[in-house]
Amino acid sequence: MASKLSSTIFIWLILLTVLLLYFYSLILPFYSTPKSSKISFKQPQLCNFFKGKWIQDPNHKPLYDETCPFHRNSWNCLKNQRENMGNINSWKWVPENCSISSHIDPFKFLELMRNKNIGFVGDSLNENFIVSFLCILRVADNGAKKWKKKGAWRGGYFPKFNVTVAYHRAVLLAKYQWQPGIAKSSSDREPNGVYRVDVDTPAEDWVEVTKFYNVLVFNTGHWWGIDKFPKEKPLVFYLKGQPIVPPLGIFEGLKVVLDNIVSHIQREVPRETLKFWRMQSPRHFYGGEWNENGSCLFNKPLEESQLDRWFDPSNQGVNKEARQVNQLIEAAVQDTDIQLLDITHLSEFRADGHPAIWLGKKDAVAIWGQDCLHWCLPGVPDTWVNILSALITSKLESE
Ligand SMILES: *[C@@H]1O[C@H](CO)[C@@H](O)[C@H](O)[C@H]1NC(C)=O
Ligand SMILES: *[C@@H]1O[C@H](CO)[C@@H](O)[C@H](O)[C@H]1NC(C)=O
Ligand SMILES: *[C@@H]1O[C@H](CO)[C@@H](O)[C@H](O)[C@H]1NC(C)=O
């Protein structure tokens, strides 16, 4: 009798286990889809570093000069003798309701980052950002060495602290490649090719290296325009190896790439990695596009009241795309653990901060026009570094 009862219980237990396993397997895929692995990110109640104003302070001096070995020549405005550099760097960013020290302490920061690595992924505006970061950090370790391993385009290693900070160039973030056209007839000598973008495939420049980094800073934005990909050489978007039909416009393509890359990051990059998305860096072409003699020979920041006229898309101005791109970025990273580095507004003021005509090469302006896109270094990206390092510090210290 007793053995009959226990075998009945045994059978029920087995049935129950099987059932539980079955239900578990049902909810498992639910937990591993990118949407639901997006954890809601409790941000510590920090002040908002991104709203505020620029205040002139004659005692404000950059931490580095033209001798920093990490400079890229065309942004080295001191060496290229850009006018007004003293003035440009006398402005400091003061957030509205809180204070941020006007410089990071590179010693303290690198000590905090000991045995850790910071990676930047994106276009030349992230390269502009990292050059500033490398030059600032080098103040604490002048044994810093150039570092270009793992496919990095540019980077530095800080031996005193065993910290690597590097940039991986991937202008669209997704994989893209030139695909030559196929002649439709024997007289068709130059069939049009296209740039094929695989929206669901991250560029190989960064996809394998994310686990090396403890902090990642992504961006894309400046290549999503018809000046980079004109009608004769358009972007054509592919999903799962097939062209998307109907074909997407360039901004629609950007939206799909952002969604796919963000999903990839949520799926593949470890949760403990600090992830940032740097929002669009605004351009300041005045009076025309870069190839229409657009210029930025300003000697002080814009007034707040001027910003909408320059940047609001409803005004159809030359520089309207930063805010448009930002809307797509915000939508894509919503409800993820990727934190927005919203440097757009503070940078919008700084029409005075670009290399303009001081590019370090004689014919550069005649060929490329003024550079009202990248930033002089030292300059505005030093403030981005300040804010990024404050956010990293508060995250790491709260752990
Ligand atoms: C700053 O504080 C004021 C008053 O409390 C508030 O109205 C404003 O929204 C705050 N600004 C930011 C950027 O948090
Ligand atoms: C340097 O940091 C890496 C992690 O980036 C770690 O694997 C390595 O052990 C560290 N080296 C030393 C000498 O501490
Ligand atoms: C730009 O300036 C040059 C020299 O002043 C002039 O020849 C050219 O027509 C201008 N281009 C445009 C698009 O305005």
How is this structure best described in words?
By secondary structure, the chain is of the alpha/beta class. It has a single domain, classed as Rossmann fold (3-Layer(aba) Sandwich). Helices cover 33% and strands 16% of the residues. It has helices spanning 2-32, 34-37, 85-88, 106-112, 124-138, 204-207, 250-268, 307-311, 321-333, 344-348, 364-368, 380-397, and strands spanning 52-56, 91-95, 117-122, 145-146, 154-158, 163-169, 174-179, 194-202, 215-218, 235-239, 242-243, 274-278, 338-341. The strands form three sheets. Strands 4-5-6-3-9-12-13 form a seven-stranded mixed beta sheet, sandwiched between helices. Helix 5 (124-138) packs across helix 12 (380-397) and helix 7 (250-268) runs parallel beside helix 9. The chain is globular, with a radius of gyration of 25 Å. It binds 2-acetamido-2-deoxy-beta-D-glucopyranose (3 copies).
List keywords for this structure.
399 residues, alpha/beta, 12 helices, 13 strands, globular, binds 2-acetamido-2-deoxy-beta-D-glucopyranose, transmembrane helix
